[in-house]
Amino acid sequence: MVTREDLYRLIWAMPMTKVSAQLGISYGKLVQICTALGVPRPAQGHWTRLELGKADPVPPLPAAAEGQPTTWTGDGMPLPKPRPAARAPRKKAVTGTTPPAMHTLLRGTKAQFLNSRPARDDGFLRPYKRALPDLRTSSAALDRGLLLANALYNAFEEAGHHVVLSGLNSAARRLQIDPREAPIKGRQYDPYPQPWRPDRPTLVQTDGVSIGLIVLEMTEHVKMRYTNNAFVRDSAELAARLERSHVSGWTTFEDVPSGRLRIVAYAADSGIDWSQSWQESEDQTASLSPETIVKAVLAQKRQLLDMAEEAARRAELRHRAWLEEQEKCRRREDERNIAKSYEESLATLQSAIQRWSRVMEIEQFFSQAEQRAATLPSEARTNVLERVSLARNLIGHQDPLDLLREWKAPAEIYQPLHADSADTVRQRTRSKL
Predict the structure, then answer these.
(1) Which among 201, 332, 360, 368 could bridge 174 via Cys, Cβ 3.0 to 4.6 Å?
(2) CA dihedral 348, 354, 360, 365 (to 10 degrees)
(3) Is residue 139 within 8 Å of 114, Cβ to Cβ?
(4) Long-range pairs for 276-279: beta carbons < 8 A, 24 or more residues apart
């Protein structure tokens, strides 16, 4: 036997498919029992919204109406038909469904995407404006791409995370994407020229880690035939028609827009190597679910935070190693400058000593000449002293102390940054003398 209260607690504690399996009845039978007993049921999508933290509040169990059963004893128990609800006033027929609200980033962007440079052979749009959401499609798939991006952005907004373009000075990176739906083994993706890309990545604002979003149309490798001055997809019908018209057209294989879309989420921090993608299949058996993608991305948040902490730790180690290397470079440069100052000072001092010796020799020569002249007769002495005066005027006055005043010590040429480096260079210099 199941009471109204027991059934109420069960269907609000777990999905009704699990409740029906637990009671051993079908899902439709459980719906009939809830209706007969007057037990409110969760709306469609309740459990998905609950996981995202957006579920509606649980309604209270209303009191049983007069004559309404309060228990269900078994599968054989007949269920009274529910009382018909009061007829609601007829509403005006709705001619169409209300489209979802357009996200702020996507409002008015269709015209900006279509305002494109002439498309290359790959067929993708190349908008003049680059401050746009990260969306890359052909003109044929633009509407579907905008709708998918809008649903994805709104799903993140409903989960409490804003979707924005990165700041102009942001360090966020954009992941390089291979758009091929099925990469060919041995054929590396290296397009030339590079495809269009926005100048700023599209980011999901989360605490501690930035997640980038990309919506793009994939490419497929197909056989193309050149005819009427253009490449078109080759087919048996086209080849037969050209053969009947006696027109030849050469063929090649190219990567062209497939019409199928892919969503890529990635860590925008250059120190974190993480990305995940979801794409439409060729048979279109399963469409992309933004709610499922949001749930999968947010489930990785703890892992991404750990990866961000590890990346920060590695960056700190690299920074410290760089600082140590810079300090070593500064010390080596300081030692070179100190050694250079010692060499320059020593060379100047040696030159001064040599010049001092030369001046003293000249001075000694003149002094001895004047002493010898004093012993000569008056006329001869006068002649010699005149000659000495002429020689002195020719050479000029030289004061040996001027040489010391002009000389500079090593510390006057260069001021060392490290005292121990100066001591090392000083000892090295003295050992060479």
Answers:
(1) 201
(2) -140
(3) yes
(4) 276/300, 279/181, 279/218
Name the residue with tokens 């060499």: 343
Amino acid at 151: A
Phi, psi of 149 (to 5 degrees): -60, -40
- What pLDDT does residue 321 have? 95
Tokens 């190597």, residue? 273
- Report residue 296's pLDDT band, with 50, 70 and 90 as the boundaries: very high
**What is the rounded distance in angstroms from the CA atom of residue 350 to the CA atom of residue 387?**
32
Tokens of 405: 């005043």
SS3 203: strand
Average pLDDT over residues 262-283: 90
State the pLDDT at residue 64: 80
Cα distance between residue 155 and residue 293, in whole Å? 9
Asked if 165 contacts 128 with a C-beta cutoff of 8 angstroms, the reply is no
Nearest to 175 by CA among 257, 63, 269, 312: 269
pTM, rounded to two decimals = 0.57
Q: Can you tell me the mean pLDDT for 320-326?
A: 95
CA-to-CA separations, 289 to 37, 151, 280, in angstroms, rounded: 35, 9, 10
Distance between CA 324 and CA 304 in Å, rounded? 30
Average pLDDT over residues 145-153: 94
More confident residue, 46 or 200: 200
> Angle CA(398)–CA(400)–CA(403) in degrees, nearest 5?
105
pLDDT at 98: 56
